[in-house]
Design a protein that fits this description.
The chain is mainly alpha-helical and 267 residues long. 71% of the residues lie in helices and 0% in strands. The chain is built from eight helices and no strands. It is globular and about 70 Å long. It starts with 32 loop residues before the first helix and ends with a helix.
Length: 267
Amino acid sequence: MNEPRTSTPPNPTPAIIEPVQGPEPATSGTMSFFEHLEELRSRLLRSIFALIIGVAIAAVFTGDILKYLASPYEHRLTNPSPTGAVVMYFRVALMSGAILAIPYITYQLFMFVAPGLTKKERSWIYLALPATTGFFLLGVSFAWFIMAPAAFGFLQTFQSDVFQDQWFAEEYFKFLTSLLFWIGVAFEMPVFMFVLARLGLIGPKVLIRNWRFAVVAITIIAAIITPTVDPFNMLLVTAPLLMLYVLSIGLVAIAARRVQRSLNAPH
Protein backbone atom coordinates (compact mmCIF):
# COMPACT_ATOMS: atom_id res chain seq x y z
CA MET A 1 0.00 0.00 0.00
CA ASN A 2 1.46 3.30 -1.05
CA GLU A 3 1.85 5.91 1.71
CA PRO A 4 0.39 9.32 0.93
CA ARG A 5 2.91 11.81 -0.20
CA THR A 6 3.18 15.34 1.14
CA SER A 7 4.28 17.91 -1.32
CA THR A 8 6.95 20.26 -0.03
CA PRO A 9 8.52 23.09 -1.91
CA PRO A 10 11.95 22.19 -3.20
CA ASN A 11 13.69 25.16 -1.69
CA PRO A 12 11.77 26.36 1.32
CA THR A 13 12.37 29.98 2.22
CA PRO A 14 13.70 30.29 5.77
CA ALA A 15 11.55 32.30 8.10
CA ILE A 16 12.82 35.77 8.89
CA ILE A 17 12.98 36.20 12.61
CA GLU A 18 13.15 39.82 13.78
CA PRO A 19 15.23 40.44 16.87
CA VAL A 20 13.18 41.07 19.96
CA GLN A 21 14.05 44.37 21.59
CA GLY A 22 14.61 44.06 25.26
CA PRO A 23 14.10 46.73 27.83
CA GLU A 24 16.06 49.94 27.45
CA PRO A 25 19.35 49.85 29.26
CA ALA A 26 19.52 51.63 32.51
CA THR A 27 20.90 55.11 32.41
CA SER A 28 24.40 55.63 33.54
CA GLY A 29 23.17 58.29 35.96
CA THR A 30 22.57 55.73 38.72
CA MET A 31 24.87 56.43 41.63
CA SER A 32 25.85 54.39 44.63
CA PHE A 33 25.34 55.50 48.23
CA PHE A 34 28.87 56.84 48.55
CA GLU A 35 28.58 58.63 45.21
CA HIS A 36 25.44 60.32 46.55
CA LEU A 37 27.38 61.41 49.63
CA GLU A 38 30.16 62.77 47.45
CA GLU A 39 27.60 64.61 45.32
CA LEU A 40 26.00 66.07 48.46
CA ARG A 41 29.38 67.16 49.79
CA SER A 42 30.21 68.84 46.48
CA ARG A 43 26.88 70.70 46.39
CA LEU A 44 27.26 71.82 50.02
CA LEU A 45 30.79 73.10 49.41
CA ARG A 46 29.64 75.06 46.37
CA SER A 47 26.78 76.55 48.37
CA ILE A 48 29.10 77.53 51.22
CA PHE A 49 31.52 79.07 48.74
CA ALA A 50 28.66 81.05 47.17
CA LEU A 51 27.60 82.21 50.65
CA ILE A 52 31.13 83.38 51.42
CA ILE A 53 31.25 85.36 48.18
CA GLY A 54 27.83 86.86 48.94
CA VAL A 55 28.91 87.87 52.45
CA ALA A 56 32.14 89.41 51.08
CA ILE A 57 30.15 91.49 48.59
CA ALA A 58 27.55 92.48 51.18
CA ALA A 59 30.23 93.46 53.72
CA VAL A 60 31.18 96.40 51.49
CA PHE A 61 27.68 97.86 51.82
CA THR A 62 26.80 96.64 55.32
CA GLY A 63 27.30 100.06 56.89
CA ASP A 64 24.65 101.58 54.64
CA ILE A 65 22.42 98.52 55.11
CA LEU A 66 22.63 98.92 58.90
CA LYS A 67 21.49 102.54 58.64
CA TYR A 68 18.63 101.56 56.34
CA LEU A 69 17.46 98.72 58.59
CA ALA A 70 17.63 100.95 61.66
CA SER A 71 15.53 103.68 60.00
CA PRO A 72 12.12 102.40 61.26
CA TYR A 73 13.32 103.06 64.81
CA GLU A 74 13.48 106.83 65.10
CA HIS A 75 16.06 106.86 67.91
CA ARG A 76 19.62 105.59 68.08
CA LEU A 77 19.84 101.97 69.14
CA THR A 78 21.50 101.14 72.44
CA ASN A 79 24.63 99.00 72.40
CA PRO A 80 25.48 97.78 75.92
CA SER A 81 28.22 95.38 74.79
CA PRO A 82 31.75 96.39 73.66
CA THR A 83 31.59 93.91 70.78
CA GLY A 84 27.91 94.35 70.04
CA ALA A 85 28.43 96.62 67.04
CA VAL A 86 30.86 94.15 65.45
CA VAL A 87 28.50 91.23 66.04
CA MET A 88 25.58 93.11 64.50
CA TYR A 89 27.73 94.18 61.55
CA PHE A 90 28.59 90.59 60.67
CA ARG A 91 25.06 89.39 61.39
CA VAL A 92 23.61 91.81 58.84
CA ALA A 93 26.42 91.00 56.40
CA LEU A 94 25.62 87.30 56.74
CA MET A 95 21.92 87.86 56.12
CA SER A 96 22.59 90.11 53.12
CA GLY A 97 25.09 87.61 51.72
CA ALA A 98 22.57 84.79 52.15
CA ILE A 99 19.98 86.79 50.21
CA LEU A 100 22.49 87.31 47.40
CA ALA A 101 23.46 83.63 47.37
CA ILE A 102 19.99 82.09 47.76
CA PRO A 103 19.39 81.68 43.97
CA TYR A 104 22.61 79.70 43.55
CA ILE A 105 22.01 77.68 46.74
CA THR A 106 18.52 76.80 45.49
CA TYR A 107 20.04 75.79 42.16
CA GLN A 108 22.49 73.45 43.90
CA LEU A 109 19.65 71.92 45.91
CA PHE A 110 17.66 71.21 42.76
CA MET A 111 20.71 69.86 40.95
CA PHE A 112 21.29 67.36 43.77
CA VAL A 113 17.80 65.95 43.13
CA ALA A 114 17.85 66.27 39.32
CA PRO A 115 19.99 63.18 38.43
CA GLY A 116 17.26 60.86 39.68
CA LEU A 117 14.56 62.49 37.57
CA THR A 118 13.48 62.21 33.96
CA LYS A 119 14.14 64.90 31.38
CA LYS A 120 10.58 66.22 31.65
CA GLU A 121 10.75 66.31 35.44
CA ARG A 122 14.07 68.19 35.33
CA SER A 123 12.53 70.78 33.01
CA TRP A 124 9.97 71.60 35.70
CA ILE A 125 12.78 72.10 38.21
CA TYR A 126 14.61 74.45 35.86
CA LEU A 127 11.42 76.47 35.39
CA ALA A 128 10.96 76.64 39.17
CA LEU A 129 14.39 78.21 39.81
CA PRO A 130 13.49 81.81 38.87
CA ALA A 131 10.11 81.40 40.57
CA THR A 132 11.69 80.38 43.88
CA THR A 133 14.06 83.36 43.73
CA GLY A 134 11.19 85.70 42.93
CA PHE A 135 9.05 84.37 45.78
CA PHE A 136 11.98 84.67 48.19
CA LEU A 137 12.49 88.32 47.30
CA LEU A 138 8.73 88.85 47.50
CA GLY A 139 8.76 87.43 51.02
CA VAL A 140 11.65 89.68 52.08
CA SER A 141 9.82 92.71 50.64
CA PHE A 142 6.59 91.70 52.37
CA ALA A 143 8.38 91.34 55.71
CA TRP A 144 10.16 94.69 55.35
CA PHE A 145 7.44 96.92 53.91
CA ILE A 146 4.36 95.43 55.61
CA MET A 147 5.20 93.25 58.61
CA ALA A 148 8.10 95.22 60.10
CA PRO A 149 6.35 98.65 60.10
CA ALA A 150 3.26 97.10 61.66
CA ALA A 151 5.30 95.38 64.34
CA PHE A 152 7.45 98.41 65.16
CA GLY A 153 4.46 100.75 65.19
CA PHE A 154 2.65 98.53 67.66
CA LEU A 155 5.67 97.90 69.88
CA GLN A 156 6.66 101.58 70.10
CA THR A 157 3.19 102.72 71.12
CA PHE A 158 2.26 99.81 73.39
CA GLN A 159 1.92 101.15 76.96
CA SER A 160 3.99 104.20 76.02
CA ASP A 161 2.65 106.10 79.04
CA VAL A 162 4.25 103.53 81.32
CA PHE A 163 7.41 102.41 79.50
CA GLN A 164 10.12 104.36 77.72
CA ASP A 165 11.49 102.69 74.62
CA GLN A 166 15.22 102.10 74.59
CA TRP A 167 15.83 99.20 72.24
CA PHE A 168 19.04 97.24 72.27
CA ALA A 169 20.74 96.91 68.90
CA GLU A 170 21.38 93.18 69.33
CA GLU A 171 17.73 92.34 70.00
CA TYR A 172 16.52 94.70 67.27
CA PHE A 173 18.69 93.28 64.50
CA LYS A 174 18.19 89.70 65.69
CA PHE A 175 14.44 90.14 65.39
CA LEU A 176 14.60 91.99 62.06
CA THR A 177 17.10 89.76 60.26
CA SER A 178 15.31 86.58 61.38
CA LEU A 179 12.01 88.02 60.22
CA LEU A 180 13.31 89.07 56.79
CA PHE A 181 15.23 85.89 55.99
CA TRP A 182 12.79 83.24 57.22
CA ILE A 183 9.73 84.95 55.80
CA GLY A 184 11.58 84.99 52.47
CA VAL A 185 12.26 81.26 52.82
CA ALA A 186 8.63 80.60 53.81
CA PHE A 187 7.38 82.38 50.69
CA GLU A 188 9.13 79.70 48.61
CA MET A 189 6.75 77.04 49.99
CA PRO A 190 4.07 77.36 47.24
CA VAL A 191 6.67 76.91 44.49
CA PHE A 192 8.16 73.81 46.14
CA MET A 193 4.69 72.34 46.65
CA PHE A 194 3.78 73.01 43.02
CA VAL A 195 6.94 71.30 41.76
CA LEU A 196 6.35 68.29 44.01
CA ALA A 197 2.79 68.05 42.71
CA ARG A 198 3.97 68.22 39.08
CA LEU A 199 6.35 65.36 39.86
CA GLY A 200 3.42 63.37 41.23
CA LEU A 201 4.84 63.24 44.75
CA ILE A 202 2.04 65.07 46.55
CA GLY A 203 -1.65 65.83 46.07
CA PRO A 204 -4.11 68.38 47.44
CA LYS A 205 -6.00 65.79 49.51
CA VAL A 206 -2.91 65.13 51.61
CA LEU A 207 -2.50 68.83 52.43
CA ILE A 208 -6.20 69.27 53.22
CA ARG A 209 -6.35 66.12 55.35
CA ASN A 210 -3.32 67.21 57.43
CA TRP A 211 -4.30 70.84 57.93
CA ARG A 212 -4.32 70.47 61.74
CA PHE A 213 -0.74 69.21 61.70
CA ALA A 214 0.17 72.09 59.35
CA VAL A 215 -1.28 74.67 61.75
CA VAL A 216 0.75 73.24 64.63
CA ALA A 217 3.93 73.10 62.51
CA ILE A 218 3.42 76.67 61.28
CA THR A 219 2.90 77.89 64.84
CA ILE A 220 6.15 76.23 65.93
CA ILE A 221 7.99 77.74 62.93
CA ALA A 222 6.58 81.17 63.78
CA ALA A 223 7.80 80.81 67.36
CA ILE A 224 11.28 79.94 66.05
CA ILE A 225 11.36 82.84 63.58
CA THR A 226 10.30 85.46 66.13
CA PRO A 227 12.87 85.88 68.92
CA THR A 228 10.15 87.30 71.21
CA VAL A 229 7.31 85.18 72.59
CA ASP A 230 4.54 87.80 72.65
CA PRO A 231 1.32 86.81 70.83
CA PHE A 232 1.37 89.83 68.49
CA ASN A 233 4.67 89.02 66.83
CA MET A 234 3.81 85.32 66.57
CA LEU A 235 0.47 86.18 64.97
CA LEU A 236 2.26 88.55 62.60
CA VAL A 237 4.36 85.64 61.31
CA THR A 238 1.73 82.90 61.61
CA ALA A 239 -0.94 84.65 59.53
CA PRO A 240 1.04 84.92 56.25
CA LEU A 241 2.38 81.39 56.67
CA LEU A 242 -1.17 80.06 56.92
CA MET A 243 -2.15 82.03 53.82
CA LEU A 244 0.85 80.56 51.99
CA TYR A 245 -0.30 77.08 53.00
CA VAL A 246 -3.75 77.76 51.55
CA LEU A 247 -2.11 79.11 48.38
CA SER A 248 0.01 75.94 48.21
CA ILE A 249 -3.14 73.79 48.32
CA GLY A 250 -4.57 75.72 45.37
CA LEU A 251 -1.38 75.41 43.32
CA VAL A 252 -1.05 71.71 44.13
CA ALA A 253 -4.66 71.16 43.01
CA ILE A 254 -3.92 72.88 39.68
CA ALA A 255 -0.75 70.86 39.19
CA ALA A 256 -2.50 67.59 40.10
CA ARG A 257 -5.23 68.23 37.52
CA ARG A 258 -2.60 68.85 34.84
CA VAL A 259 -0.79 65.64 35.76
CA GLN A 260 -4.05 63.67 35.61
CA ARG A 261 -4.94 65.27 32.27
CA SER A 262 -1.57 64.32 30.79
CA LEU A 263 -1.97 60.73 32.03
CA ASN A 264 -5.44 60.43 30.49
CA ALA A 265 -4.41 61.98 27.19
CA PRO A 266 -4.06 59.48 24.29
CA HIS A 267 -0.44 58.74 23.38
